[in-house]
Specification:
Layout: H1 13-35, E1 52-53, E2 86-88, H2 94-102, E3 106-110, H3 116-127, E4 131-135, E5 143-147, E6 150-154, H4 161-169
Parallel strand pairs: 2-4, 3-4
Antiparallel strand pairs: 1-6, 3-5, 5-6
């Protein structure tokens, strides 16, 4: 069956297939080079001691707010638009972050009162690719690392397990849409 594009031109499906296939190969190679993980050497780093598995609902898009059973949420229903990666010194919308988690992003939350040393570490993590760092008062731990269906609770951002968690879960195949990125996500305004 032949189709035409909106301008009435014939679509060359073979050319489209070759282009899509080429882009998939380039994306895969880029992911390996950027992540620094050598698949031949056993893949990605292991999750650090203390990482817990979190049960999550199906990753479907829903309008409005979601009442998550875990703080911070580690997956489930979410907003149709992901949150842009970065460091936020304020509370961000859970529903947008959960969409980013679906894409393989790691979310690090911290309680008020972090030391200058901890804030530097957190800002560095937030400036790394595929991570979100945000303030979250009353979360029950000083620092929490969250990925899709995984979480680690820590007493300090200086704990080396925080970086290990980020390395183990960023773009992890355990997320529903790894490597989808948070590029083009919404940038929330300060409340």
């Amino acid at each position: 069956m032949s189709r035409k594009d909106p301008l009435g031109r014939q679509i060359d499906w073979k050319r489209v297939g070759v282009w899509v296939g080429s882009m998939a190969v380039v994306a895969g190679l880029t992911a390996v080079v950027v992540s620094g993980v050598d698949p031949a050497a056993g893949g990605r780093p292991e999750a650090p001691e203390g990482t817990e598995t979190v049960a999550v609902e199906d990753p479907i898009h829903v309008p409005g707010g979601v009442d998550y059973p875990v703080v911070p949420p580690a997956g489930g229903e979410h907003d149709p638009t992901p949150l842009a990666c970065g460091f936020y010194d304020f509370v961000v919308p859970d529903e947008n972050v959960v969409h980013s988690l679906e894409h393989g992003v790691v979310w690090v939350t911290y309680e008020p009162g972090a030391s200058a040393e901890e804030l530097k570490i957190l800002k560095d993590i937030g400036e790394a690719r595929e991570t979100i760092v945000s303030l979250l008062p009353d979360q029950g731990s000083s620092v929490i690392g969250t990925a899709w269906a995984a979480q680690i609770r820590l007493d300090s951002a200086t704990d080396p397990r925080l970086e290990q968690f980020v390395d183990a879960f960023r773009d992890a195949p355990s997320s529903p849409e790894p490597l989808a990125s948070c590029a083009g996500g919404v940038v929330p305004s300060r409340p």
